[in-house]
């Protein structure tokens, strides 16, 4: 008898760090119900079609596919976003970029740029919190731009827009009060690329040269031409890259350079301010 309770108790996901949570998310999706439904009706039996959907999703997860790709959506900030295999899955660590941006700049009309926007997570979170801001997100992957635009339309955030651009290539002459990015920052030989969810994510959104800093260097070099005087540049990076990124920011002419820690205590983002002169 395939009840909710028996299926959750027997779900076998040995390689997942969160097997119970994964099973609950997949089962709730198969039922078309919220997770709370599973606890309210543990003795409910699944229909054959629902059971088949759950078992198919479970098998995909056993093969290592991320739950977010199986479900087609992922929560970020206060938003529920469509995701797809041509974009990174938004992660809680990246919310530190959003928190810092909201802290640094006032809730008044100004322009913000999100480089490598992917699903549009950062840009849309900022647009949702600051209606007066005009937030632009760019990505070099056309499918990612289309996905971000679908998320924008569904969330009805008219103060955000998305462009196809490799970093600043489509932004000639444009300047912003704030530029922020979660760029690729993993070394090409990093062993973690062969483990866990990242095996299924696009390598172009993860890997940045032999030391993981190629894209960060490019952004820091080009950003001053696209920042207003006194504007901020915020960059997410690896847990062990803060010193190197801060050195690059200082060498690039930025002031007030410092790093901020994520919830795990890692120096997750570094930032600097363009000289006002």
Q: Please, could you describe this protein's structure?
A:
- With 277 residues, this protein is α/β, with parallel strands linked by helices.
- It folds into two domains: 4-64, no CATH class; 79-274, Vaccinia Virus protein VP39 (Rossmann fold), CATH 3.40.50.
- Helix content is 35%, strand content 21%.
- The chain is built from ten helices and nine strands.
- It has helices at 4-10, 19-31, 35-40, 48-62, 67-71, 95-104, 121-129, 142-155, 214-222, 242-251, and strands spanning 73-76, 79-82, 110-115, 133-139, 160-164, 176-181, 227-236, 254-261, 267-274.
- The strands form two sheets. A seven-stranded mixed beta sheet has the order 5-4-3-6-7-9-8, sandwiched between helices. A two-stranded antiparallel ribbon has the order 1-2.
- Strand 3 (110-115), helix 7 (121-129) and strand 4 (133-139) form a beta-alpha-beta unit.
- Helix 1 (4-10) runs antiparallel to helix 2 (19-31), helix 2 (19-31) runs antiparallel to helix 4 and helix 6 (95-104) runs parallel beside helix 7 (121-129).
Give the structure's gist in a few sentences.
The chain has 277 residues and is α/β, with parallel strands linked by helices. 35% of the residues lie in helices and 21% in strands. The chain is elongated.
């Amino acid at each position: 008898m395939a009840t909710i309770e028996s299926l959750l108790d027997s779900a076998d996901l040995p390689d997942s760090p969160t097997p119970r949570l994964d099973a609950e998310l997949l089962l709730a999706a198969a039922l078309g119900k919220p997770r709370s439904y599973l606890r309210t009706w543990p003795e409910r039996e699944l229909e054959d079609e629902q059971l088949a959907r759950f078992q198919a999703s479970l098998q995909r997860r056993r093969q290592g596919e991320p739950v977010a790709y199986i479900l087609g959506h992922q929560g970020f900030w206060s938003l529920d976003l469509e995701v797809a295999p041509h974009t990174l899955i938004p992660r809680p660590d990246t919310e530190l970029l959003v928190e810092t941006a909201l802290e640094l700049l006032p809730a008044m009309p100004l322009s913000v740029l999100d480089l490598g926007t992917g699903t549009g997570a950062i840009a849309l979170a900022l647009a949702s919190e600051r209606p007066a801001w005009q937030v632009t997100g760019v990505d070099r992957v056309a499918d990612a731009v289309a996905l971000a635009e679908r998320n924008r339309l569904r969330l009805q955030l008219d103060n955000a827009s998305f462009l196809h651009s490799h970093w600043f290539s489509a932004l000639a002459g444009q300047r912003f009060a704030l530029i922020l990015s979660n760029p690729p920052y993993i070394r090409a030989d990093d062993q973690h690329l062969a483990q866990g969810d990242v095996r299924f994510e696009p390598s172009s959104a993860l890997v940045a040269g032999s030391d993981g800093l190629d894209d960060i260097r490019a952004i820091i070099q080009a950003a001053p031409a696209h920042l207003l005087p006194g504007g901020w540049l915020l960059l997410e990076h690896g847990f062990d890259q803060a010193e190197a990124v801060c050195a690059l920011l200082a060498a690039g002419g930025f002031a007030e350079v410092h790093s901020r820690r994520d919830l795990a205590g890692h120096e997750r983002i570094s930032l600097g301010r363009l000289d006002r002169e």
